[in-house]
Specification:
heterodimer; A: 213 residues; alpha/beta; Rossmann fold; 6-stranded mixed beta sheet; 7 strands; B: 230 residues; alpha+beta; two-stranded antiparallel ribbon; 9 helices; Small_GTP-bd (chain A); P-loop_NTPase (chain A); GTP-bd (chain A); GTP-binding protein (chain A); GTP binding (chain A)
């Protein structure tokens, strides 16, 4: 028995060395509404599994439930990293149904969307507390990153000692300012990308492997 | 009693800790929030009706002469007071009493009116009720982070009209602030409009899984089904 156990241990040690850790790390994709979290999650999932995670929309709070894509294997420099991606609802301190009325939505639908979005924020915060091993924080690089939500969430992530990668999304848009995001969070590395166009995804995957592998 | 268990109907005061681990009676985890301003208690109406009667009675006595009244009090005990007063005066000569006792009536009158002001138990109860309403109303309005307090109070101006009364109870205010800090993670400004306290949502173990209209909500407790006996 002892011999068998030793043999199994040594085999698992070898496989651990060759491949990623047995347990895939659960990486939460966080950020304010409409930053492109789902677009990024879909981009990663499509690139490595062929599936999508969820529907994308230009209307804020399209994602109102956390969605998970498990066992996404990312290969970088001959090394394989397996992660579970959790696409979370956009975090905000205020949800107002009137915001949705501009998008040709009936009032009843807007009120329901607003309620679901609020539940979604509660769920996202709960996941952050309990269930993630690392965070990809997505920001729209055309908007001001100095907000209460961003400061608070980054603060929570830092207090949890979670590895965090900050992505400056939407570089394909006019008015994109990556440096502004880098200045806002100088203690973290900021990676520019366009999840929609697939620009600079190579660097994103390299950093994911480096941070969460 | 703004929180009510939707399973067994048990009510909890605003800010109660009991319900945090589920309803102590039935174990239910679904509660309903009833705003205090909406309570139209028929009981309070009955008490207000009683108040004029009790104040009318001493008023009648004050009008009658004190000397005669003391003699007629045994009669008062047997029958209702307001009707007895005229009956007792009718036995004596009204003109005599008014002329002879008018001087003596003035010193005794304050005593009678003092008794009248000490009597109205009904009005005191009503005052208590309005205090409770104010406390609940402002407990619902004082929320979220300090920088948002201004806007929050403006949103519920109607519910906060008598702030002077709540200031008279600093202990309750302090307690309310403490409870708000503990509980207020999502504030429903109006249907479809919410304000969220992210730190509270992050800090609390309970997980809100469903918001419903009219202030109902469902929370999932960390050990929802392991409710301990008290």
């Amino acid at each position: 028995m002892g011999l068998l156990t030793n043999l199994r241990d040594s085999i698992s040690r070898v496989t651990d060395g060759l491949f990623a850790a047995d347990e895939p790390k659960r990486i939460g994709i966080y950020g304010p509404p409409n930053a492109g979290k789902t677009t990024l999650a879909n981009r990663i999932a499509r690139d490595w599994t062929g599936d999508a995670v969820g529907p994308e929309s230009h209307i804020p709070h399209e994602t109102r439930r956390a969605r998970r894509k498990e066992n996404v294997e990312i290969e970088r420099n001959g090394r394989k990293v397996t992660i579970d991606i959790v696409d979370t609802p956009g975090v905000t301190t205020k949800v107002d149904y009137k915001e949705f009325l501009d998008h040709d939505m009936e009032k009843d639908d807007a009120v329901r969307r607003s309620r679901e979005a609020t539940e979604g924020v509660a769920e996202a915060m709960h996941w952050l507390r309990e269930d993630v091993d690392g965070v990809i924080y997505v920001l729209d690089s055309t908007t001001d990153p100095f907000t209460q939500v961003n400061t608070m969430l980054i603060g929570i992530i830092e207090s949890q000692d979670l590895p965090a990668l900050i992505l400056a999304n939407k570089t394909d848009l006019e008015g994109s300012d990556v440096q502004q995001i880098a200045n806002a969070f100088p203690q973290h590395e900021t990676i520019p990308l366009s999840a929609l166009e697939g620009d600079n995804m190579d660097e994103v995957y390299t950093k994911i492997a480096e941070y969460f592998g | 009693m703004p929180h009510q268990c939707t399973s067994c109907g048990r009510t909890f005061p605003d800010g109660s800790k009991e319900m945090l681990s589920g309803c102590p009676d039935c174990g239910g985890n679904k509660f309903q929030f009833k705003p205090a301003g909406a309570t139209d208690d028929p009981g309070s109406g009955g008490e207000t009706d009683g108040t004029p009667n009790s104040t009318a009675e001493p008023a009648d006595r004050a009008q009658s002469t004190p000397g005669e009244e003391r003699r007629s009090t045994p009669d008062d005990g047997t029958a209702s007071a307001p009707t007895d007063e005229p009956a007792s005066t009718s036995t004596d000569d009204p003109a005599d009493r008014r002329s002879t006792d008018s001087a003596g009536a003035t010193p005794a009158d304050p005593g009678a009116s003092a008794g009248a002001s000490a009597e109205p138990d009904g009005t005191e109860q009503i005052a208590d009720r309005s205090d409770e309403d104010t406390a609940q109303a402002s407990a619902r309005s004082e929320v979220v982070s300090p920088d948002e307090l201004d806007r929050a109070s403006r949103d519920v101006d109607a519910a906060e009209t008598p702030p002077a009364e709540s200031e008279s109870q600093p202990g309750i205010d302090a307690l309310r602030d403490e409870l708000n800090d503990q509980f207020e993670s999502i504030r429903i400004v109006s249907p479809g409009q919410y304000e969220l306290n992210l730190m509270e949502l992050y800090d609390r173990q309970e997980y809100i899984i469903s918001l419903q209209e009219d202030g109902r909500y469902v929370i999932e407790m960390p050990d929802a089904w392991g409710i301990q006996d008290e």
